[in-house]
Input
Amino acid sequence: MNLEIKPATEADLQKVLEILNELSAWSAATGKKMEWPLPWPSDYIAEIIEAGEMYLAYRADRSANQFVGQPRDAPVATFELSSSDEEAWGPQPPDAFYVHHLGVRRSQNGKGVGGQLLEWSARHALANGKSFLRLDCIASNPFLQEYYKKAGFTHVGYHYLPHDRGMICLFEKTLAEQPGL
Output
């Protein structure tokens, strides 16, 4: 599946929230450890959109048979790509982009969407002179940890979030000019 990735705009706020809330509800219902809020605070996501750091992914081929139960122009995923994350990583040189809130619609699960978003993020980071792509996940989620390792990320440490919000695993991917990036 080919994806078209676009920066989210103010008009896209509800689309982003719909995807994130869908995943939060699924996580809560299945007992998967994501530690995402439900519902997501719209003002928080609006700030990320306003900063130009939230993206939406659409299927490049929007034929009707690929969108059972969804409008053809519905996004299939969303994610944040920011230039810093001091809460998790502490002060760092400006040599990385950070992926957050990567959410894929459940109807698209298992179709490689998440991997494509991470690959796009790596290419985007490299094109913007970054040496690393970083992300984190809750330490009690071994599935995500394995997923990120299989996507080429290296586990580089742990960090305790303030206010007793738990421990997270830190992952990093070193970027270099190479085929596929």
